[in-house]
Design goal:
single chain, mainly alpha, Aldehyde Oxidoreductase, domain 3, 3 domains, four-stranded mixed sheet, 15 helices, about 65% helix, flat
Length: about 425
């Protein structure tokens, strides 16, 4: 997990306003840098470009790029609305962070500002003949960049609001979160600190990040041990503590400890692995609703969840072999791992509930669970079989046609869930 400062910086870097602001600042700096480079140009270059030539080209760019930037923004907003209605509103956060979309809009805004400032500088006669030559060269380079960006942007627009793209982005975010989260193959038995006290948040909210390094430093300074009760994704309030402390501390230290837990009104994809699985299941549930009636999307989601959990098992095996999750003798912070049962239920249970009346959905769920069990029996077998029996029982109670029920039993028996 990230430190508090790294978490805040990372959030700013992902925000939609940062790149346009940086590109605009870079464009302004480039325009004002031209007079500084002027004295270093060869003399024979100085009469090649007239002020009228620069002004004509820059005027065309300035008048057209503003329209292009506004069009790109409106198109992105429409794509986000489409993704929210076809997939889930929770996926908008990831789509807004799309690097290709941010780069395109930032390029158009930066190019517009460059052209506008260039026209103003030319009108005010701020550039010498050598400066006009530099400005013209930068303008030609800018035209090439804008055209290349526009071509890539048009290609990106064809997928930006598509439900398949939303599934891919959520799957990637969930996979990264599982790879980076401090998880364990099994949830270890944590110390209880019977003589300790609970640490409660000042305001309720979802835990978005736990600054483990900052907590470690505080615990060493205070000679304190701590069990994290609210991991990323959990909601903490006056009835649900953030952590259990091995001893009582003064109010100032409590405030410092609470500051290591970043709370917010929403869950965070990048530090909350199960949130990605929950959002994937929401996409599948919406696809299975009578108004949408798109079981193919639900099947796509089931396979995406299976891929995430498959890769998670490989990551846990690598950590076990390298002993990365072992508790050190002098460990002061204890963070529970992600329970396999919870991960499976976050991903598959809502789909099983909404797709119980569709045999194809139940068969796909059983197939995915069978694949996970076969891949890592030690990790998945017990919880997979429990969930598979529940899924099958729900489907058998919902499906009315006897032939469908017989086929479900045959599928479950073939996958080893009736033995």
């Amino acid at each position: 997990m990230l430190s508090r400062a790294e978490f805040l910086v990372n959030r700013v870097l992902r925000s939609i306003w940062l790149r346009p602001a940086a590109y605009a600042a870079g464009a302004a700096f480039t325009v004002f840098l031209t007079p500084i480079i002027d004295p270093f140009l060869p003399f024979e270059w100085k009469e090649l470009i007239s002020a009228e030539t620069n002004e004509a080209v820059l005027t065309i760019l300035a008048s057209s790029l503003l329209a292009v930037a506004i069009f790109s923004l409106s198109t992105m907003v429409s794509a986000l609305q489409s993704a929210s209605s076809s997939a889930t509103p929770r996926a908008r956060t990831l789509l807004v962070e799309d690097a290709a979309a941010q780069n395109a809009i930032s390029t158009f805004i930066g190019a517009f500002l460059f052209s506008l400032l260039g026209v103003i500088g030319t009108r005010l006669d701020l550039y010498s003949p050598a400066g006009r030559m530099i400005l013209f060269g930068l303008t030609v380079l800018l035209v090439v960049i804008v055209v290349a960006t526009l071509i890539r942007w048009l290609q990106r627009l064809s997928r930006l609001g598509d439900v398949t793209e939303a599934i891919r982005r959520v799957e990637d975010a969930a996979q990264i979160a599982f790879d980076n989260a401090p998880v364990a193959r099994d949830v270890p038995k944590l110390p209880e600190f019977r003589d300790g006290v609970d640490l409660y948040p000042k305001t309720p909210g979802f835990v978005q990040n736990v600054a483990l390094e900052d907590l470690q430093s505080l615990c060493e300074r205070l000679d304190l041990k701590l069990v994290v009760k609210a991991a990323p994704g959990d909601f903490a309030d006056a009835g649900a503590p953030l952590a259990r402390l091995s001893k009582a501390v003064d109010p100032a230290c409590e405030d410092a400890l609470c500051a290591c837990f970043n709370l917010g009104s929403d869950r965070d994809f990048h530090s909350d692995p199960c949130f990605g699985l929950t959002v994937l299941s929401e996409i599948a549930s919406k696809a299975l609703s009578p108004g949408v009636n798109d079981p193919g999307t639900a099947i796509h989601v089931i396979r995406a969840i299976e891929r995430v959990l498959h890769k998670w098992a490989l990551t846990l095996d690598e950590r076990r072999q390298s002993n990365k999750d072992a508790h050190a003798p002098d460990q002061r912070i204890f963070l529970p791992g992600i329970a396999v049962r919870r991960a499976l239920r976050c991903g598959f249970h809502p789909i099983a509930f909404d797709g119980a009346d569709r045999p194809v959905i139940t068969q796909t769920l059983l197939s995915a669970l069978s694949g996970l069990k076969a891949q890592d029996r030690a990790l998945y077998e017990e919880d997979v079989e429990t969930l598979a029996r529940e899924i099958l029982s729900r489907a058998m109670a919902t499906v009315e046609f006897e032939g469908d029920r017989d086929r479900l039993k045959q599928s479950a028996d073939r996958m080893g869930f009736l033995g």
